[in-house]
Amino acid sequence: MFDNVAEGYDRTNAVATMGLEKLYWRPQTLAEIAPRKGMRILDLAAGTGASSVKLREAGAEVVSCDFSVGMLRVGKRQHPELDLIAGDALRLPFADETFDVVTISWALRNVNDVTVALREMLRVTKQGGRLVVLENSHPTWKPFRVAYLEYMMRAVPVVAKAVSTNPDAYVYLAESVRAWPGQVPLAETIGASGWAHVQWRNLTGGLVAIHRAVKPL
């Protein structure tokens, strides 16, 4: 599915999120990661590598990993300087304690087993290293939450039909957002997977949330 939407993926996201992804949500996630020179970062489910570019510009050593070879092909054409690797989040092709930070954006809900994926991220993170997850969440104000879900189910597929190479895929993506757990259940799942000091921060009234955690020493 992601192979088929690769060509227009970044453009469709920009339109569907009305610019919030690029102008607000991504910069806030970048600030949470706080990349710097000498830091090794795994950008998991990196897609075309758009998020990895900013991490690299900050001086970090970045590995961009994604399950979709089609997304990586587009990414390599657009950003040939990136280190792009095909890999499965349930069985990461990296040694134990390799990275200072593992980050995943808008993809944790797409893995077959969230707990297994979180444990794999824990395995490849150094002791004291961090996890940063950006994901759709549950708006904290009920009327806003109802309107948001209505938008996801009705408007996003229409937008995708206009600008995406595979609009049917966005019906699935909208449904996955509706089925995704809220902030507290996700934090509990992260903690149960072995991560410590789990916290989250709502953005845009809980439309999305940044969850963060630390690998115990």
Automatic annotation (TrEMBL):
<feature type="binding site">
    <location>
        <position position="48"/>
    </location>
    <ligand>
        <name>S-adenosyl-L-methionine</name>
    </ligand>
</feature>
<dbReference type="InterPro" id="IPR004033">
    <property type="entry name" value="UbiE/COQ5_MeTrFase"/>
</dbReference>
<comment type="similarity">
    <text>Belongs to the class I-like SAM-binding methyltransferase superfamily. MenG/UbiE family.</text>
</comment>
<comment type="pathway">
    <text>Quinol/quinone metabolism; menaquinone biosynthesis; menaquinol from 1,4-dihydroxy-2-naphthoate: step 2/2.</text>
</comment>
<dbReference type="GO" id="GO:0032259">
    <property type="term" value="P:methylation"/>
</dbReference>
<feature type="binding site">
    <location>
        <begin position="88"/>
        <end position="89"/>
    </location>
    <ligand>
        <name>S-adenosyl-L-methionine</name>
    </ligand>
</feature>
<comment type="function">
    <text>Methyltransferase required for the conversion of demethylmenaquinol (DMKH2) to menaquinol (MKH2).</text>
</comment>
<keyword id="KW-0489">Methyltransferase</keyword>
<protein>
    <recommendedName>
        <fullName>Demethylmenaquinone methyltransferase</fullName>
        <ecNumber>2.1.1.163</ecNumber>
    </recommendedName>
</protein>
<keyword id="KW-0808">Transferase</keyword>
<dbReference type="Pfam" id="PF01209">
    <property type="entry name" value="Ubie_methyltran"/>
</dbReference>
<feature type="binding site">
    <location>
        <position position="105"/>
    </location>
    <ligand>
        <name>S-adenosyl-L-methionine</name>
    </ligand>
</feature>
<feature type="binding site">
    <location>
        <position position="66"/>
    </location>
    <ligand>
        <name>S-adenosyl-L-methionine</name>
    </ligand>
</feature>
<dbReference type="InterPro" id="IPR029063">
    <property type="entry name" value="SAM-dependent_MTases_sf"/>
</dbReference>
<dbReference type="GO" id="GO:0008168">
    <property type="term" value="F:methyltransferase activity"/>
</dbReference>
<keyword id="KW-0474">Menaquinone biosynthesis</keyword>
<keyword id="KW-0949">S-adenosyl-L-methionine</keyword>
